[in-house]
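Take one protein record:
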Amino acid sequence: MDLNILNSEIQEFIDRNIGVSISKLALLKNPFPEVQWISILNQIEAKTKAKDKLPNWFNTKNIIYPSKVSIEQTSSEKTALYKSTVVSGSSLIDLTGGFGVDDYYFSKSVTTVNHCEINPELSEIVAHNYIQLSIENITCHAGDSLNTLESLNQKWDWIYIDPSRRNDAKGKVFMLKDCLPNVPDNLNNYFKNSEAILIKTAPLLDISAGVLELENVKTIHIVALENDVKELLWELHKDYLGKIMIKTVNIQKDKTETFDFIWNDQSQASNYSVPLNYLYEPNSAIMKSGGFDEVSHYYALNKLQKHSHLYTSANLISFPGRIFEIKNCIPYNKLEMKTFLQDKKANITTRNFPETVEYIRKKWKIKDGGNSYCFFTTDENNNKIVLICNKIQ
């Protein structure tokens, strides 16, 4: 870690160039020869990435940033804040500390936090940044986290792990055993040190596959930010053998949508109907969860078709997702399309439909945009239909 990067003139230069093209800056002569030009450019690029994702870091003086890749891979402050509501107690150890955003928020919920990072330079950067951020209850450890876990030799209220995929596993289906650390192989060891484990994985991981790989899963949190699923959180408790709770969370600017249900609960069945007055499209966290019958049952909504994952009702209700008023329901044929949509402007979505959005636009010369929202889907009798709607939410 080169502390010369904290020179006030260099920091002012970095701030002045936030958002400026790095490729253009790279052509300039380095005005600060005491620091490598590539290091300064990296700070500009990484801090630009942090502006919206990590506002506390961005707005704090003398923060040092790692590579832009580390910033891209780290949790956002909003998802880290959510994680902090899952844990509590007097002690937590993070075995895969990274840039330390999660631990910053864990430190608000847990008395003492230990940050483990195998990269010594990154560990040093994180320790420096915590001082700038006025965080005093996090201890940083450089080196292999399993060695740290063994040397500290204590019981923890929580162990937190954010495993990363190995480079040699890129071509494979995403499995936890393909990650570092290999959580399934180390679970017994982890449970010797804590009775509660929180694991963060990418949304690419299939929920059913994760349940098969792990043991003692109590709760799975599916966390979306502005309707984009960012991470899965696996909450494990020693010796737990009960039903698994699925918690879906969609964090938005002005509200947070939540929907919880018991995983693989066979008692929740959907009812089906023709399109009624209103159409409901679940948010991305619910879509990832697979709780389609549970949504239908809980909100007393009818599904259009088993595989369409669109819902309808005669009366308007509050719902975690997009809501539309259905203005027309037409069969998908040449006459109806020419009458209602050809050469017009509309926002198009397909659900359980054999043609792509791009193909439909080209075929019927439909321009993108406008106030009309069209769902190309399939009804209960497997007929192709188009729902022409106005958006409510």
Notes: Residues 37-53 form the longest helix (17 residues).
